[in-house]
Design brief:
371 residues, mainly beta, Immunoglobulin-like, 4 domains, six-stranded mixed sheet
C-alpha cells in the first residue's frame, strides 16, 4: 500500500461483507442475509464474546465455508415479469415494471431484487399472494397522477436509473445475484416496435402457460392492448369478454348466435375468426388476408399479410395445400414484420423460407388455433 514502511511486516486486511452487530441472546445458529453472500464464493466467519463486565474475548478461529446455491425454482415458476413500460409517451417518469405471482402459493419478495436495468430491493416483509401483482415504478407521484392510487406499487427504483428507450438487459435476482429472470429487450423487430414511444408497453404472452414462457425470446412478448398499458391488471382480451361487448343477453345465451362457430352476419367467418382478425361479428366483411409473390434473384416466395387483434392469446399457423383437401404445415415461414394499425389490430406479415415450385398449383390459409 502507499503508506507501507519498508522493513515492516505487511498487514493483510479482509473487507467484511456482513456484521451481525451485538447480539444480546446467545444462539448456536446464525442466519446470514442472502444479499450478503454470493453462491460459490468462500467466506470466513469469526465470533467474539463479551462478558457481564463488558470484557471482550479474543476473536475465535475462523470457520470457512462456501455459500451454496439458493433454491429459486419457486420464483422461476411463479414470479413472472408480466409488463414493462420502458418508453412512455409521457416520458421516463411513467416507466414501470410489473410482476405477477402466477402460482398457487404466496411468495416472499424480501430477498428479491432487480440487479440489471434498474436497482431495486423489495421491502422487508413483502408478500405476493397467488394471482396478485406488484409494480416497481420510476416516479410514484407521477405514476399515481396518471393511473390512480389503487394500483399495488411496492416502491420506486433508484432515481438515477431509467429504462433505456433503445433496449437493455433486465435481471431479476434472488439474494446476491442468483438469477430468477434475465433478458434483454429491444426497440426493433422482432420485439414489438409499438412499445417504443407509441404508447404501448411490453406484455409477456401467456405467463401462466405450461411450460412458462421464456422472457428472453421476443416472440413471447406482445404490445399492450391499451395505450399506457394495464399496470396492476391482466391485459389480455378473452373471447368471452369480446362476446359480451357485441351481443345482448339473449344472444349470449344462444351459442348458435354468439358461440365460437356462430356467424350472425353470414359472411363466412365464424365469431372466433372475427375475434382473431379484428372483425365485427354483426357486420359482414372480406377476409383480411392477402397473399403476394415476392421475387428475389429469379426465385418466387409466398408472402402473406393479415390483420390480428392486439391483446389476445390466440395463436395461428400457415398451412398450404395443392388440392384444398389435404393441408400441410411442412413449409417453413419467417416473420417479416408486425405493424401496429392504431385501431386495436396489428398487421402481421410472414414469408415462406422455401422457393415456390414452378408450374405447381398451391393454396394457403391461416389456421387460427383456439384458446
Amino acid at each position: 500500500t502507499s503508506n507501507h514502511v519498508a522493513g515492516e511486516a505487511w498487514k493483510y486486511e479482509i473487507e467484511e461483507v456482513w456484521d451481525s452487530g451485538e447480539l444480546t441472546t446467545f444462539s448456536s445458529l446464525v442466519t446470514f442475509p442472502t444479499v450478503a453472500l454470493r453462491p460459490g464464493h468462500t467466506y470466513r466467519v469469526r465470533v467474539q464474546h463479551t462478558d457481564d463486565t463488558n470484557r471482550s474475548s479474543h476473536w475465535s478461529e475462523p470457520i470457512e465455508f462456501i455459500a451454496g446455491e439458493p433454491d429459486v425454482m419457486p420464483y422461476k415458476e411463479s414470479l413472472m415479469i408480466t409488463e414493462v413500460m420502458y418508453n412512455s409517451q409521457a416520458g421516463s417518469s411513467l416507466e414501470f415494471i410489473e410482476l405477477k405471482n402466477v402460482g398457487k402459493d404466496s411468495l416472499s419478495l424480501t430477498d428479491v431484487r432487480f440487479t440489471k436495468g434498474i436497482d431495486f430491493d423489495f421491502p422487508l416483509g413483502t408478500i405476493l399472494g397467488p394471482g396478485k401483482f406488484a409494480l416497481v415504478v420510476n416516479d410514484l407521484a407521477e405514476f399515481q397522477k396518471a393511473y390512480g392510487e389503487g394500483i399495488p406499487v411496492v416502491g420506486e427504483w433508484d432515481p438515477d436509473d431509467s429504462l433505456s428507450n433503445g433496449g437493455e438487459q433486465v435481471k431479476l435476482s434472488f439474494g446476491a445475484g442468483t438469477e430468477i429472470h434475465n433478458f434483454t429487450y429491444d426497440d426493433d423487430f422482432p420485439w414489438p416496435e409499438s412499445a417504443d414511444g407509441a404508447g404501448r408497453s411490453l406484455v409477456l404472452r401467456a405467463p401462466s402457460s405450461s411450460p412458462r414462457p421464456d422472457h428472453e425470446f421476443a416472440d413471447n412478448w406482445r404490445p399492450s392492448r391499451l395505450i399506457g398499458g394495464s399496470p396492476g391488471s391482466d391485459d389480455e382480451l378473452s373471447f368471452d369478454s369480446w362476446r359480451e361487448a357485441f351481443f345482448i343477453l339473449p344472444e349470449l345465451e344462444d351459442l348458435s348466435v354468439s358461440g365460437n362457430d356462430g356467424d350472425p352476419d353470414n359472411d363466412g367467418m365464424s365469431n372466433f375468426i372475427e375475434f382473431f382478425f379484428g372483425g365485427h361479428p354483426k357486420e359482414s366483411g372480406a377476409v383480411p388476408v392477402s397473399v403476394t409473390l415476392d421475387q428475389e434473384d429469379g426465385a418466387k416466395y409466398l408472402e402473406i399479410a393479415f390483420a390480428r387483434r392486439v391483446g389476445i392469446e390466440v395463436s395461428f399457423e400457415i398451412q398450404d395445400s395443392r388440392d384444398l383437401v389435404d393441408w400441410e404445415t411442412d413449409r417453413d415461414w419467417v416473420m417479416v414484420s408486425i405493424v401496429d394499425n392504431a385501431d386495436g389490430t396489428e398487421t402481421v406479415r410472414v414469408r415462406s423460407e422455401s422457393e415456390l415450385p414452378e408450374n405447381e398449383r398451391n393454396f394457403v390459409r391461416v389456421m387460427v388455433i383456439g384458446e
